[in-house]
């Protein structure tokens, strides 16, 4: 008997009825709707679940005290002074979100060509790491490694004659990773897409005795239009000159994503990431199937903004769209999601119980 999708094909041909108790009933042996007839039945056959363990919550930092500043293009997301970030870390803990990620808005006066503020051991990110770890050592903290929040030109690396320099940038990224790790960061997440940075950072961490600091590599990061609101949030939107296509990936490619991921694993990445999320679910699936590594996905600012804006206009049920978009990542094979929806989704998951 030929089997396809779990049923003998021949069974479909068999006519079982000459008469039926139900008028107009179709002669169907198989009725997939039976398994969807009630919530309890749907729960029994559900293949994928989202839990609060799947969430990483990115927070934006700003200088000052007791300050919260709305990010215009990300309704519901604020830039936070360090004391407020500590409060949100507490909220994350209470919501059982395992990890938060920190991104600084850097005042234009502190930005320069080289992104020097990135390696300042007392920069906003390091201050926040220390403050959060002091009060809540149990929460995981992820720090991004790249120069874009700190450079006057908004690029992730050093620039010369309009070219983003690879090897020179990597040397600076190692120093950036070290100041963050020394401040107490648990996961270093290079998002710069320079070649060879994972190996160099791993070596730098190990040499400093920071053997347990993990690396989550933004391994397949695409040059994407969906980062627009994030650049607003960190203050790079106005300053960015040109685009990032000489270092971030071409959105047409997926084989290349596998090569990038393979390299980062070989260089010592503990976890890998695909970014953005929803437009690249196929890449998430391929990466997970190919490498069976802890695989994360970043639901980026533009994905958040699309759902939030449509919901605010009454065009979408925002909560349902949020949960559906997050579950899609699990279905595609992701082990976790960086999402600005994290606290909202966690609240919903906890009330659902
Ligand atoms: N390196 C972190 C990002 O670039 C985030 C992008 C986004 O949320 O749009
Ligand atoms: Mg790479």
From TrEMBL:
Transmembrane segments: none annotated. GO terms for molecular function: porphobilinogen synthase activity. NCBIfam families: PRK09283.1. Its EC number is 4.2.1.24. Pathway: Porphyrin-containing compound metabolism; protoporphyrin-IX biosynthesis; coproporphyrinogen-III from 5-aminolevulinate: step 1/4. It catalyses: 2 5-aminolevulinate = porphobilinogen + 2 H2O + H(+). InterPro entries: ALAD, ALAD_AS, Aldolase_TIM. Homooctamer. It comes from Bradyrhizobium diversitatis. Keywords: Heme biosynthesis, Lyase, Porphyrin biosynthesis. Belongs to the ALAD family. This is Delta-aminolevulinic acid dehydratase. The gene is hemB.
């Amino acid at each position: 008997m030929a089997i396809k999708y779990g049923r003998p094909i021949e069974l479909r041909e068999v006519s079982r009825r000459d008469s039926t108790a139900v008028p107009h009933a179709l002669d169907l042996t198989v009725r997939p709707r039976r398994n969807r007839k009630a919530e309890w039945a749907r729960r029994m056959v559900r293949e994928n679940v989202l839990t609060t363990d799947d969430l990483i919550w990115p927070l934006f930092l700003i200088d000052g005290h007791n300050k919260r500043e709305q990010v215009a293009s990300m309704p519901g997301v604020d830039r936070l002074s360090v004391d407020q970030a500590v409060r949100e870390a507490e909220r994350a803990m209470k919501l059982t979100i395992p990890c938060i990620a920190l991104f600084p808005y850097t005042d234009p006066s502190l930005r320069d060509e080289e992104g020097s503020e990135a390696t300042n051991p007392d920069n906003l990110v390091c201050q926040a790491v220390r403050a959060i770890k002091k009060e809540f050592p149990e929460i995981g903290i992820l720090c991004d490694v790249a120069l874009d929040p700190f450079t006057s030109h908004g690029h992730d690396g050093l620039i010369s004659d309009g070219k983003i320099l690879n090897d020179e940038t990597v040397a600076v990224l190692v120093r950036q990773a070290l100041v963050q790790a020394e401040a107490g960061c648990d996961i270093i997440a290079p998002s710069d897409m320079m070649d060879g940075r994972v190996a160099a950072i791993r070596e730098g961490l190990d040499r400093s005795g920071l053997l347990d600091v993990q690396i989550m590599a933004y391994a397949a990061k695409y040059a994407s239009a969906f980062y627009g609101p994030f650049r607003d949030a960190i203050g790079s939107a106005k300053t960015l000159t040109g685009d990032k296509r000489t270092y971030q990936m071409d959105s047409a490619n997926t084989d290349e994503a596998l090569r990038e991921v393979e390299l980062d694993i070989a260089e010592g990445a503990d976890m890998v990431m695909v970014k953005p999320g929803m437009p690249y679910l196929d890449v998430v699936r391929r990466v997970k199937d190919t490498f069976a590594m802890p695989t994360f996905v970043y639901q980026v600012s533009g994905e958040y903004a699309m759902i939030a804006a449509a919901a605010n206009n009454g065009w979408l049920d925002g909560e349902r769209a949020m949960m559906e978009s997050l579950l899609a990542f699990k279905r595609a094979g992701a082990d976790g999601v960086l999402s600005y929806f994290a606290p909202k989704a966690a609240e919903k998951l906890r009330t659902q119980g």
